[in-house]
């Protein structure tokens, strides 16, 4: 605060800024209501994770000043949650892991209904059966237990991975999650495909060499074959595509 400023003066400025932001939020909600009422929006789920990622990337690119980037994303996540609720609502199935439930609340907003499930399989069934619009599952990782390896049993005919969370994190996040839904995600302009391969036994290095540009997330060698999960810009012919989602931002906080 400059010496010439008074506390009352700065607070008056904050009040005026709050009024301005509130007016813009109300106008934004009116625009969402018009979008919801028009026939222009494609049918299916109201959630458009690609569009949300594109908006966040645009704002992050122009962002400057003292508001942390993580705070900017959190504020807009709540705006998107309110916007989705305005268009009919949304619920998320979460497995019995408090850290995943926290990630779900951070991403989908504190007002979004979380539906706790007894297991990963139950969370997937909740989406398949229409009990929840989406499910949050632990992002596949090396060394996971067999019952955690949902991606090996994933029904790619019916379900889609539509997001990789968190969207923004400085460096490698301690916990990542996949969001699964019935409808595929829309394009964000910079997306990745998650695909599963079953091949005759092959080392991780050989797999990586055969798929240049892809990230080998997991390569399990079991009884004469390799079951692998990869992430890349496109999937090779013959791969089982589990989904497509916005490439998360791993920049500065
Ligand atoms: O663009 C849309 O389709 C919207 O519904 C609007 C909006 C938004 O608030 O910007 C809300 C929810 C979607 O997930 C994406 C974007």
UniProtKB/TrEMBL annotation:
Keywords: Isomerase. InterPro entries: Chorismate_II_sf, CM_dom_sf, CM_II_prokaryot. It comes from the Bacteria. Residues 1-91 form the Chorismate mutase domain. The keyword Isomerase applies. One of its GO terms (molecular function) is chorismate mutase activity. It holds the Pfam family CM_2. SMART domains: CM_2 (SM00830). Its EC number is 5.4.99.5. This is chorismate mutase. It comes from Sabulicella glaciei.
């Amino acid at each position: 605060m400059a010496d010439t400023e008074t506390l009352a003066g700065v607070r008056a400025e904050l009040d005026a800024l709050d009024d301005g932001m509130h007016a813009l939020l109300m106008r934004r909600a009116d625009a969402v209501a018009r979008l919801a009422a028009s026939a222009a929006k494609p049918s299916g789920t109201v959630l458009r994770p690609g569009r949300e990622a594109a908006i966040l990337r645009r704002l992050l690119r122009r962002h400057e000043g003292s508001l942390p980037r993580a705070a900017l994303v959190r504020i807009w996540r709540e705006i998107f949650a309110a916007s989705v609720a305005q268009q009919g609502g949304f619920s998320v199935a979460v497995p019995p892991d408090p850290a995943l439930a926290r990630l779900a609340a951070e991403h989908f907003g504190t007002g979004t209904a979380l539906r706790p499930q007894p297991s990963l399989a139950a969370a997937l069934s909740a989406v398949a059966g229409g009990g929840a619009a989406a499910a949050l599952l632990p992002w596949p990782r090396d060394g996971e237990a067999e019952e955690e390896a949902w991606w090996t049993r994933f029904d790619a005919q019916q379900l889609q991975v539509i997001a990789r969370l968190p969207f923004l994190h400085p460096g490698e996040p301690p916990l990542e999650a996949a969001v699964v839904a019935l409808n595929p995600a829309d394009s964000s302009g910079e997306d990745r495909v998650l695909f599963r391969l079953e091949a005759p036994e092959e080392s991780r290095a050989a797999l990586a060499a055969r798929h240049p540009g892809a990230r080998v997330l997991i390569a399990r060698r079991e009884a004469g074959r390799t079951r692998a999960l990869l992430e890349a810009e496109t999937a090779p012919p013959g791969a089982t595509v589990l989904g497509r989602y916005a490439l998360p931002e791993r920049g500065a906080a």
